[in-house]
Amino acid sequence: MSSATVGFLLLRLAVGLLLAGHGAQKLFGWFGGDGFTSLSKVLEGQGFKPAGFWALLGGVGELLGGLLTALGLLVPLGEVAIFAAMFLAVAKFHWKQGLWSVNGGYEYPLVILTITIVLACIGPEVFSLDQLLHINLPVLQCFGLGVLAALIIDSIGLIISRQSSPESGKR
User: What sign results for the dihedral spanned by CA atoms 120, 108, 110, 93?
Assistant: First the structure.
């Protein structure tokens, strides 16, 4: 086993489990999170309608995407779910604050988004359920189509939230 294989396994586990935990904070209030109701209220305040749908989509994307990534199961789908959540986080919640996270910027979600692209490009490695179960998805094609779908869905969310946010009436 090469050091690169071990490194990619550690990267996959760290990113996957941390994102799954982040999703569990949003959905269930675990690990000190505020939970689904609070997230729905935040998204409603940002103009997302229906807020519960968008909260569920984001929370499940992080939780399920993180678990799939950590397990190395259906590799491109986990990466797409994380990509979608992080892209929307960058575009809607962090972009205006600039790059650095110290100012609430998009530094952290951009790093996670980039890592998901790298993991998708690598595909399932040893110590993945895809390898164990002989699942051979066309990783780059699935990832590419999934990212396209994620960008369309995220764009719809951005348009909806701009049209119905309290700030949109101030123009």
Answer: positive
